[in-house]
Amino acid sequence: MSYTAAEPDSPTHHRGRAQRATEGWAFLVESIRNHRTVGSIAPSGKSLANLLAEPLLEREPRISNVLEVGAGTGSVTRALLPRIPRGSRLDIVESNAHFAAHLRRLVRGYPNLPAQQEQVRVHNVYVEQLTTDRRYDVIVSGLPFTNFSPGQVDEIMGRYLDLLRPGGTLTYFSYCGSRWVRTLLPSRPEARRQRDVKDLLHQYHHRYAIGCWTVWGNLPPAKVWQLRRPLDAVSASAALTAQPDLSR
After folding, report:
1. Is residue 224 domain-resident?
2. In the prediction, which pLDDT does 236 show?
3. pTM, to two decimals
4. Of 115, 129, 211, 243, which is most buried by a Cβ count within 10 Å?
5. Residues near 120 by beta carbon (within 8 Å), at least 6 away in sequence
6. Using CA atoms, how far apart are residues 223 and 44, in angstroms rounded to an integer?
7. Which distant-in-sequence residues (6+ apart) come within 8 Å of 239 by Cβ?
8. Roughly how many angstroms between the first and final C-alpha of the chain, as a whole number?
9. pLDDT exceeds cutoff 70 at 160
10. pLDDT higher than 80, residue 177
11. 91 pairs with which residues across the strands?
12. SS in 3 state form for the chain?
């Protein structure tokens, strides 16, 4: 599927800028209203969105099943849509009803997609409640793990691994500076919760991570992790002992 960017002074370009401004305000409102499930005050920047979508680009032109979770106002969705090969499937999971309605409008109005609407579905549920027998080649997560309890994070990560095909890739991001933020938290239990979440995610990184990159140009700067489900039991055993250099 091809996508041609609008010229800088074209009506389409100006409509796009106005739409992104509106989405930014919508994101801010929802972040205040639902601060436990919206992890930032602004949508992901273009560089971050492109990096999160990179595993799908690496699979082209193969048909792929893709799952995006926590899509918000669709900044990463926009990076995924032009990369979806014909015959592939994109399932978008968003628990916030306002965001889910916006995402449906985004999909309906996306250029070159009307003939392939059946390829993309928006689900207004939590990922733990998603009913599907589908297995995914790529999962992109925008969930704010630092807002959740360790038990919730463990359940979600386990769900992701169940939904991935062997050899499938999960990408997710976290904002930089969480250690500095924890020093400002007035509540010791809150600081301990964030530390426990970080330690839990480190265990998943140790077992499954294949790469980590920092996007300094995002607001705020973000770190992108790529995890891969092992191909078989032997691969899983190797993943437990392998320790790739992820210190970048």
Report:
1. yes
2. 46
3. 0.77
4. 211
5. 81, 84, 89, 90, 91, 92, 107, 113
6. 12
7. 207, 208, 230
8. 33
9. yes
10. no
11. 67, 121
12. CCCCCCCCCCHHHHHHHHHHHHHHHHHHHHHHHCCCCCCCCCCCCHHHHHHHCHHHHHHCCCCCEEEEECCCCCHHHHHHHHHCCCCCEEEEECCCHHHHHHHHHHHHCCCCCHHHHHHEEEECCCHHHCCCCCCEEEEEECCCHHHCCHHHHHHHHHHHHHHEEEEEEEEEEEECCHHHHHHHCCCHHHHHHHHHHHHHHHHHHHHHEEEEEEECCCCCCEEEEEEECCCCHHHHHHHHHCCCCCCC
Q: How many domains does the chain have?
A: 1
Tell me which of 57 and 204 has the higher pLDDT: 204
Q: Residue holding tokens 């790739």?
A: 244
Tokens (6 digits) for 144: 């704010």
pLDDT at 45: 86
What is the CATH number for 176? 3.40.50.150
80, part of any domain:
yes
Check residue 196 and give its pLDDT: 94
In a domain, 4, yes or no: no
Q: What is the pLDDT of residue 10?
A: 42
pLDDT in tens, 38-65: 444 455 689 999 999 999 989 988 999 9
